[in-house]
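In this supplementary section we document a worked example of the pipeline. Step one takes a protein sequence of length 209 as its only input; no multiple sequence alignment statistics are reported here. Step two produces a three-dimensional model, which step three serialises into structure tokens for compact storage. The input and output of this example are shown verbatim.
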Amino acid sequence: MSELIEKLNWRYAAKRMTGETIPAEKLNNILESIKLAPSSAGLQPYNVIVIQDQVTKEKIHIAAPQPQVLEASHILVFAAWEKINAQDIAKYIQLIADTRGISTESLAGFQNSINGGILSRTEEANFQWAARQAYIGLGHALVAAAVEQVDATPMEGFDAKAMDDILGLNEKGLRSVVIVTLGYRDGEKDPLSRAKKVRRPHDDFFITV
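The serialised model returned by step three reads:
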């Protein structure tokens, strides 16, 4: 069994955490993995709010009343862009040009393609698309956390409007879509930490054509 598969078998959605702080290097590796996640057209139409402050965690606990929220070292809130406009796309095109040392004119065809695809859709359709990109980042976070031997618990069942109000996301043009608590499992309080992982059998899960 490869080292990666061993670590993915080790990971689970911890139900209780110890409150121990994650080393900065491990946290930075997890965040960097999210930044390196792929997204459609490479636009990365979401932001990740990184929360360590305990007072803010207590406020978030109102919107997401799970013990991990208070016991985690950090909380990551994945927030999708509420709207996407031509200026956002132009900024991205400029970033490509600056990063690769090329002219924006050489990217005109690519920019027109993105504009045609994104700006022709409704704002809600674009938000849902952006949210799906955020979930790709979430996947990277969970795998990276496992590699770093950090527990990561994804959560959807929270009051998104309350979360947005608490963090002032609306003013930033963002809407929360999913959160992840990062920390270390508390085996004494969480008996599931020792339970066998349950997954569908290989032949039932994969369909080969």
